[in-house]
Structures are given as structure tokens and as C-alpha cells.
């Protein structure tokens, strides 16, 4: 058997044998000549065909190479270079895996008693950083100060009862098993409801007893179930496009849009309906971010049609996550300063060192300056997805959002970024609100006539206290691309037993509605309810009265809700700890950490942990992003699921490559690799 080598002419194949001077090679040459092949090398798109939708072929090729390549005595093993990722700044913390360090408590860092922390913003990332400062860095709570412009903590993780409007949830949060940093945090936060239990304990018990799954993921024709077969409906070409993106280097996707890498073969599929409504991706968003999502959640591809991969809290995100954290911090002595608008952080930049020297802010209408030393740690939440939110009510549409003024959070980042290139480029994210906006609404009803249509679609009782829709239901023929969900009720602890809170959003707020012939952004709460009732299948003549008397709706227009999805390149987001930073770190959705994905609670908590561990020299590993993208089992399963149960190995290749494929599979079949491929449906 000849040694295996890479052929420069067929790079799309994983490995092919060097068969020069062999009988098989002579046979292939004869076949090629008789068929009058126009070119010797397979076209790139055809060469990738076998791998399209089949990440598992990497394993097949690698396995064949191992079996067929003899080892030469004394031959040195080549050491593969680490794959380059987007920058992560100076290595001041490290990543760990497994439970060895997950259960360990680090020693108190040297000099921590002489330090103080100033956290700008009161959102999830900032609160998480404060918790890690106390738990892992050993900082006294009295030395931690949280500066928040509003009168409420939580940032985008909200959920309130506005006496003038009604219940409001601007969004919701989907969780999964492998939010490693999030669960690391909440194992230490005591429950407010169950003595002796943590927030994680409660969450774990709840989702074990009441697992999430959807019985109707999408509708059409006014409430009729759609996509009931749960197939992705991708063509062979569409599968190839997704796989090509999966394997494309980060740097080759800088500033590219999803439209640059996909066409109608993907956009017209059920896969894209599931994907964009679940994650709120638009066609003009970042191809790089799309790729990162594919790789991050490859283990959940099969769960996309029914949301079986997801987990949810019992109550809204504010009461479930934010309030327990706030109580934990208050009990530890942390200072919350509300009504403080930070306008700038001024840096001294010398010889590559960047030191925050003052925090400029507005307190009670007056300007103030908080001086900083090197022992004062400054944590900055730069940017905001909910900045500039405009609310409506039952009888009023949200006032037209300001398309030119970006607001205080973005202004703060711009002022900081103007001081050094390593602080990022906020303009990449906040300059086109028409491309980063959508509108959500909270509908509250106790009218059983409305709820009867809900039951017909979700096949569950909204009053049960258990899973209802199991995630969003997307109205696939809606002009607004309306999606709606009902989580466990009541969503608010003070909610009346008969009340049901529905959350919905429209991905296209500028498009005309199908019942209300107006753009969503121009509609009152009553009109948004009418559009929703129409897509539930309520008779047209009953809609106006039910929308007016049977429900209350509070719309929320958010101009920057998907700002983090805008096309970008390395350096547009600052590293969590920029190179040369002495006492400053960035937190949240617009800070850069490798491999993880924005628009998740995990991302906020991960940046917080990295920031605290890095600035305070905490000797404990940050849990690495779950490595399913490197797990051959996850790759094999995803490849088959993506192709609706078809094996990618069944795809026909042009001769002589089809013959080579058969030879490889014959060699693989009696091995452990063959067992693995059969187990996951590839053979």
C-alpha cells in the first residue's frame, strides 16, 4: 500500500492515495480518457460536494489516512499550529475544561484588599462581574460601586409592571446546558424563593420536571400548522453553502454579510425560517456572526425545529436572574448608585500602558468627575442593544425613533474609543438603526375566546403553570414576520391567576401588516394585537372588539436590538482586556472574546468572568466555550440532521471520485470509524 499524500489538484477531498504507477491508477486514467473529461481536476464546488452537509467526512478521510499510511521509522510527528482566532488581548487569564477547576475555590489574590471596583452600567454583565469580584477575587462588597443611569438594574434583562401601561417584557432569554460561565455564576447565587437552594438548583429542578419542547413551531394561512414534518428543506446546493461557511476562516468573512455567502437555496428553506426567527438574524447581518453561531451551537442543529434544546426560567428574566443577583450583592455591601450617567472614561496612555484616570458623569443634573488610580478597577459595559427604546401603549404607537442620535451608552463608547484604536469602533454597530431595529410587544389577556385559539395552536393549557408554546411560534406568511411565545404562567410573581402574558416581535417593522395595513412601527398596541389575532385565525369580524376589550398591549421599538450582528472585522469590538490596559476591562455584548456568541446571557457573564480574573489575577480557569464543534459525534449528527436524515455519503460524485469514495468506505466499514458512521446514520 502506498503512502497517503495530499493531492494539490483535488483539495476539496480530505485525502486521496498517491496511486501513481499502480494498476488502479492506470484503470482510472483509462476511464477518464474514455469519458473525455474536459479537465483533470474536479471543480471546487464539485470537490466539496461530498463534504457538503457532511462534516463527518473529515473523520472518514482522516481515518482512511491513518489506516493506509505506513509509519516510517524515525519519522518525526508534525505538531499542528494553533488555529488563529480573533484577538483576545494579552493572556491574563486562561481557559479550563472539565470539572477539576469548576469545583475549586481560588486563593485570594495578593493586594485585593487595597483595590476598588467601579462598574459602569447595571446590566447582567456588570452584576456578574460584581459577583465574581466577591466570590472569586475576594474583594469586599463595600469596595464595589455600580453606576447606573436609570433607576433599575438588569439592562436588557427586564420585566416590569408599569402602572400606566401594563406588563412589559422587551425580550426573553433562551438558555441551554452548555452556558458554562452562566451556570458557574448561578450555582453561587441563593434563590429568593427556596431556602437552601441556589438559582441554578431551582432552574435545574424546573427544567428536569418540565422539559421544554414545541408542538407547533410555525403557522401559515391564519393559524394552520406549518413545517409539521420538522424538515429543514435544504437543497444540496443550500447544504453546501452552509458547510462552506462553517469551514471558512474568520478573516475571510470580515465585513461580509450573510447575503454574500447564501442565496435563495438557503433563504427559501425552512432552515432559514427557523434560524432567523429564533436568533433574529437579517439577510444583511454579519456572515462572521452567522458562522460563529453555527459552530457554537452545532450540537443543537437537530433541536431547531422543536426547541428541545432550550431551557427557560420560571418567571421573567428580571425576577428569575437579576433580583437574586441584586439581593446577593446588597447583602455583601455593594454600593448601587442610580441616576448616574457616565459620559466618558479618561485614560492616560503612555509607553503602551493604558490607565483609566477619571470617570466623567452627570449626577442629579450636575457634572462630576470621579478620579481613579491604578488600584481602581474600571469595568465598562460599552454599547447597548436596548438603548433608545421607545414605548407605546394600547392606544399609542411608539414615537418615531431617532435615526441620527445614538444615545448616552453609544456616546460613552465613542468618547472612549476616540482615545485609542484598541477601544473599538462603535460606529460599525450604531450608525444604521434601520438595519438593527425591530419591535416587540407584550400582550396581556384573560379572555378565554383569545386563549382558545392559542390552545388550538400550541396544544397546551396556558394556565397550567408549565411549558406552553415551548418557544416562539413564527407566522411564516406574516408581512412583519411575526413570532410570538407564551412562557410558563404567570410570568410575573404578582400576575393574576387568570392573566396570560404573551411576548411577540416583528422582524420587519417597516413592512405592511396583513390585517392592519400599516407598518408595525406605526401601530398602537391595539392594532398590533389585531394583527396577532388575525394570524391566530380569529374571524375578522371579531378582531376589533377583542383587540380593544379583550387584551392590553405594550409595544417597544428598539433601534439597536441587533446592533451586535452588523458586519464587522477584528478590532471593531475591544478585547475584554485591551493590550496594555492597567486597570480597565470591557464587558457585555460589544466586548470581544473568542468562539462565544453574542445575544446570549452566557456572553455577558463570560466577559465578566474574563475581566475579573484578568484584572485581579484570579488563579482559576475560565470554563472554555463548549467544544461540540470539535466533537466528531456532534458533527456527524448535525450533518445528517441538516440534510433531513439523508447521509452525506450517499451523494454521488463524478468518476473517478465515486470509485475512490467506495474504496475508502470499504476500508472504513469494518473499523471503529465504520461503527461510528453507522451509529449516526452515515453508513
Notes on the structure:
The protein has 683 residues and is an alpha/beta fold. It folds into 3 domains: 4-69 and 645-679, no CATH class; 97-154 and 316-388 and 409-431 and 562-620, FAD/NAD(P)-binding domain, CATH 3.50.50.60; 200-312 and 433-558, D-Amino Acid Oxidase, Chain A, domain 2 (2-Layer Sandwich). The protein contains 20 helices and 22 strands. An 8-stranded mixed beta sheet has the order 9-8-17-18-19-16-20-15, sandwiched between helices. Helix 4 runs parallel beside helix 11 (317-331) and helix 5 crosses helix 17.
Q: Assembly state here?
A: single chain
What count of structural domains?
A: 3
Q: Given the C-alpha coordinates, what overall shape results? A: globular
Number of separate helices: 20
Radius of gyration: 27 Å
Main structural class: alpha/beta
Question: Ranges with pLDDT <50 over ≥5 residues?
Answer: 1-89
CATH class of the largest domain: Alpha Beta
Strand order of the largest sheet: 9-8-17-18-19-16-20-15
Intertermini distance? 25 Å
Amino acid at each position: 500500500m502506498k503512502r497517503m499524500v495530499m493531492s494539490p489538484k483535488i483539495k476539496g477531498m480530505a485525502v486521496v492515495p498517491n496511486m501513481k504507477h499502480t494498476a488502479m491508477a492506470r484503470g482510472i486514467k483509462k476511464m477518464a480518457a474514455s469519458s473525455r473529461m474536459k479537465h483533470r481536476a474536479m471543480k471546487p464546488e464539485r470537490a466539496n460536494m461530498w463534504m457538503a452537509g457532511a462534516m463527518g467526512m473529515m473523520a472518514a478521510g482522516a481515518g482512511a489516512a491513518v489506516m493506509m499510511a505506513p509509519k516510517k521509522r524515525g519519522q518525526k510527528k508534525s505538531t499542528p499550529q494553533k488555529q488563529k482566532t480573533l484577538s483576545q488581548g494579552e493572556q491574563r487569564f486562561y481557559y479550563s475544561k472539565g470539572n477539576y477547576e469548576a469545583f475549586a475555590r481560588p486563593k485570594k489574590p495578593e493586594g485585593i484588599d487595597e483595590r476598588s471596583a467601579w462598574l459602569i452600567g447595571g446590566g447582567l454583565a456588570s452584576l456578574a462581574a460584581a459577583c465574581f469580584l466577591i466570590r472569586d477575587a475576594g474583594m469586599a462588597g463595600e469596595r464595589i460601586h455600580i453606576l447606573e443611569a436609570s433607576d433599575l438594574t438588569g439592562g436588557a434583562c427586564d420585566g416590569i409592571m408599569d402602572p400606566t401601561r401594563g406588563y412589559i417584557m422587551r425580550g426573553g432569554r433562551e438558555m441551554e446546558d452548555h452556558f458554562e460561565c452562566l451556570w458557574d455564576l448561578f450555582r453561587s447565587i441563593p434563590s429568593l424563593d427556596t431556602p437552601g437552594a441556589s438559582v441554578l438548583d431551582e432552574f435545574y429542578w424546573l427544567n428536569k420536571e418540565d422539559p421544554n419542547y414545541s408542538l407547533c413551531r410555525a403557522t401559515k394561512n391564519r393559524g394552520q400548522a406549518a413545517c409539521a414534518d420538522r424538515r429543514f428543506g435544504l437543497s444540496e446546493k443550500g447544504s453546501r453553502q452552509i458547510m462552506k461557511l462553517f469551514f471558512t476562516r474568520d478573516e475571510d468573512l470580515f465585513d461580509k454579510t450573510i447575503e454574500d455567502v447564501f442565496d435563495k437555496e438557503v433563504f427559501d428553506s425552512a432552515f432559514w425560517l427557523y434560524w432567523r426567527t429564533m436568533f433574529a438574524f437579517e439577510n444583511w447581518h454579519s456572515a462572521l456572526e452567522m458562522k460563529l453561531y453555527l459552530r457554537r451551537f452545532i450540537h443543537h442543529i437537530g433541536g431547531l425545529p422543536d426547541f428541545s434544546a432550550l431551557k427557560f426560567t420560571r418567571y421573567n428574566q428580571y425576577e428569575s436572574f437579576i433580583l437574586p443577583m441584586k439581593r446577593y450583592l446588597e447583602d455583601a455591601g455593594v454600593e448601587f448608585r442610580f441616576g448616574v450617567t457616565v459620559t466618558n472614561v479618561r485614560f492616560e496612555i503612555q509607553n503602551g500602558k493604558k490607565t483609566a484616570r477619571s470617570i466623567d458623569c452627570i449626577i442629579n443634573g450636575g457634572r462630576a468627575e470621579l478620579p481613579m488610580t491604578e488600584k481602581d478597577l474600571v469595568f465598562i459595559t460599552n454599547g447597548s442593544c436596548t438603548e433608545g427604546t421607545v414605548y407605546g401603549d394600547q392606544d399609542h404607537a411608539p414615537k418615531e425613533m431617532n435615526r441620527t442620535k445614538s444615545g448616552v451608552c453609544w456616546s460613552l463608547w465613542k468618547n472612549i474609543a476616540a482615545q485609542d484604536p484598541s477601544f473599538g469602533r462603535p460606529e460599525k454597530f450604531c450608525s444604521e438603526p434601520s438595519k438593527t431595529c425591530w419591535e416587540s410587544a407584550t400582550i396581556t389577556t384573560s379572555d378565554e375566546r383569545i386563549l382558545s385559539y392559542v390552545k388550538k395552536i400550541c396544544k397546551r393549557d396556558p394556565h397550567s403553570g408549565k411549558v406552553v408554546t415551548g418557544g416562539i411560534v413564527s407566522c411564516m406568511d406574516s408581512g412583519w414576520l411575526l413570532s410570538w411565545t407564551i412562557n410558563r404562567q404567570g410570568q410575573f410573581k404578582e400576575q393574576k391567576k387568570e392573566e396570560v402574558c404573551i411576548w411577540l416581535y416583528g422582524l420587519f417593522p417597516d413592512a405592511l401588516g396583513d390585517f392592519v395595513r400599516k407598518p408595525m412601527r406605526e401601530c398602537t398596541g391595539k392594532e398590533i394585537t389585531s394583527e396577532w389575532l388575525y394570524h391566530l385565525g380569529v374571524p375578522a369580524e371579531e378582531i376589533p372588539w377583542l383587540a380593544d376589550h379583550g387584551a392590553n398591549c405594550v409595544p417597544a421599538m428598539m433601534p439597536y436590538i441587533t446592533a451586535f450582528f452588523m458586519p464587522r472585522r477584528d478590532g471593531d469590538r475591544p478585547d475584554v482586556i485591551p493590550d496594555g490596559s492597567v486597570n480597565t476591562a470591557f464587558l457585555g455584548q460589544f466586548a470581544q472574546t473568542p468562539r462565544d456568541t453574542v445575544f446570549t446571557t452566557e456572553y455577558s457573564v463570560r466577559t465578566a468572568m474574563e475581566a475579573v480574573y484578568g484584572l485581579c489575577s484570579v488563579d482559576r480557569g475560565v470554563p472554555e466555550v463548549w467544544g461540540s464543534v470539535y466533537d466528531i459525534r456532534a458533527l456527524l449528527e448535525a450533518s445528517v440532521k441538516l440534510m433531513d436524515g439523508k447521509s452525506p455519503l450517499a451523494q454521488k460524485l463524478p468518476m473517478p471520485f465515486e470509485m475512490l469514495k467506495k474504496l475508502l468506505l470499504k476500508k472504513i466499514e469494518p473499523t471503529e470509524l465504520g461503527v461510528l458512521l453507522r451509529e449516526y446514520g452515515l453508513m
